[in-house]
Specification:
Blueprint lengths: L34 E5 L27 H13 L4 E5 L9 H9 L5 E6 L6 H10 L3 E5 L5 H8 L5 H14 L5 E6 L8 H11 L2 E6 L17 H11 L2 E5 L8 E5 L6 E5 L12 E4 L4 E3 L8 E2 L1 H4 L5 H13 L19 H4 L2
Parallel strand pairs: 1-2, 1-10, 2-3, 3-4, 4-5, 5-6, 6-9
Antiparallel strand pairs: 7-8, 8-9, 10-11, 11-12
Helix pairs in contact: 1-9, 2-3, 3-5
Bound molecules: S-adenosylmethionine and iron/sulfur cluster.
The site of S-adenosylmethionine has 20 residues, from strand 3, strand 5 and helix 10.
Length: 351
């Protein structure tokens, strides 16, 4: 049976063969969706230069999903076998009822529930509460160890010391393995790669170096600002010989390494631009305003909020999800002449 989907934005919905009736979400290239990235808000207390311009406009509160709507979507996704969920944003710790939402999402019955945060607002007590509510792991973002640079990258009043303390607290509270994302931008923080890699050993965390992607709201991205993952690895290896661990799972974006001297911590590199891993992508992204964004670089998005608020049943939402996933493109075309940066910045998609 082929089904035409209602109330979707971004042109005609694709036709797809399973009509949402299957037990998995599969795209038209045969990739199965196993991971959900759920953005809890597009707001943030930082304005990282590679992500959000100071004058970025946030969605109206009424346009954001309610907790009940978030949980309903997680339930529907779980019906498709999606058991790994990452909460993100914007800054998810700004969500006003985060502990309750974590508890409700966790109660759906997941294999993994993690959250990505800038670490500016996470106290040890918060972490205990989140863990008790069902959060398993925390990922932080930290792009520099220098306070002056941190201020200019994040355009915030938070300090590096605050984020480092939060990372240490997360390790102590057992929200592990703790990961720390570093977006490497040429001429900005690439001279700190080795020092940031050393943090893996100091804190016993996974330091994950991410290539800068064209998803900044200011559209300032240029290929010459991307530091290729190969170069990042070479620099780290000059200071710390590494042993490859491959990928945790085939669909994991980070190529993972341990220290050859068996030191604590791990290194990951995410080569989204120079060595895309689109062929193994298993992700579905749902934005805080209830759109399915099949790929970070999608220009089309599919509206679930209208369905959620339109009185339809879960099966109809499942059909819409299946259609959106079916539309997932083979891969991004960042290095092609016809590449066009999407309007939605990373902060409004959910990285
Ligand atoms: N506010 C939280 C944080 O910063 O950890 C969560 C949301 S943030 C959008 C998720 C991740 O996306 C962060 O690790 C951030 O560094 C990364 N990110 C943002 N803009 C990016 C870009 N243009 N290229 C690569 N990664 C980016
Ligand atoms: Fe905020 Fe995270 Fe974007 Fe920085 S990367 S502006 S912390 S959403």
């Amino acid at each position: 049976m082929s089904i035409r989907l209602p109330i979707l934005s971004g042109g005609s919905p694709p036709e797809h063969p399973n009509g949402g009736g299957g037990d998995r979400l599969v795209d038209s290239y045969g990739r199965t969706i196993r991971d959900l990235r759920l953005s809890l808000t597009d707001r943030c207390n930082f304005r990282c230069t590679y992500c959000m311009e100071p004058d970025v406009r946030f969605k109206r509160k009424v346009d954001l999903l309610t907790d009940t709507e978030f949980v309903r979507l997680v339930h529907i996704c779980a019906g498709f076998g999606i058991r790994r969920v990452r909460l993100t944003g914007g800054e998810p710790t700004l969500h006003p009822t985060l502990p309750e939402l974590i508890a409700d999402i966790s109660a759906v019955g997941l294999d993994d529930l993690s959250m990505t945060t800038n670490g500016s607002r996470a106290t040890p007590e918060d972490m205990r509460t989140w863990k008790a509510a069902g959060l398993r792991r925390l990922t932080f973002s930290l792009d520099t160890l220098r306070e002056d640079r941190f201020a200019s990258i994040t355009r915030s009043k938070t300090s590096v010391a605050t984020v480092l303390r939060a990372i240490g607290d997360a390790v102590a509270s057992g929200l592990t393995p703790v990961k720390v994302n570093v977006v490497v931008v040429r001429g900005f923080n690439d001279d700190e790669i080795e020092d940031l890699a050393a943090m893996a050993r100091d804190f016993d965390v996974d330091m994950r170096f991410i290539e800068y992607m064209p998803l900044d709201s200011g559209h300032q991205w240029e290929m010459n600002k991307v530091v290729p993952a190969g170069e990042i690895l070479e620099r780290i290896e000059r200071r710390f010989p590494l042993t490859s661990r491959g990928r945790e799972r085939m669909e994991t974006p980070a190529a993972s390494f341990v220290f050859a001297d068996d030191g604590p911590g791990r290194i990951g590199v995410i080569a989204s631009v120079t060595r895309p891993f689109c062929g193994a992508c298993s992700r579905l992204r749902i934005t805080a305003d209830g759109k399915v964004v099949p790929c970070l670089f999608s220009h089309d998005e599919w509206d679930l909020r209208g369905l959620l608020r339109g009185g339809v049943d879960d099966d109809q939402i499942a059909v819409a999800l299946a259609g959106a996933v079916w539309s997932k493109t083979a891969g991004h075309r960042i290095r092609h002449d016809d590449f066009r940066q999407p309007d939605r910045p990373m902060s409004a998609i959910g990285g």
